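User: Here's a chain of 132 residues. Predict its fold as tokens.
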Amino acid sequence: MRFHSRFVLLASAIMVVTASFALTACQPVRPLTEVTPAPVDAPFLSVEEQAIADAALQFVAGQLGVESEALHIQSVKAVQWPDASLGCPQPDMVYAAVITPGYLVTVERTGELYAVHTDSSIDGVKTICTQK
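Assistant: Prediction complete.
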């Protein structure tokens, strides 16, 4: 008899939990309150992405002969380059045909955008790619 009453109690509890889930799922969808996001000057970056972005800023600043403070990061995107040219092959050059992990960093200076192609290393290969 004890087993039977425990079984009935357990079965009743399971039915109550199941019914509450079913009723909760049938509730009408309430509209979310409007939340206006605060403007952000720079994208949120992981620690690794921030290090890559900083290295790309220094690289572009050196190539353009300007202070890095004059440059702004627009985006940092992890990519798989199709070969060792980092997606920016140069004429008369031969590149290893291996998938190369890296980043596409978009840097802005006074409205002009620079596409910096990098490998996955902070102090690795970088190039400003002007190809579309």
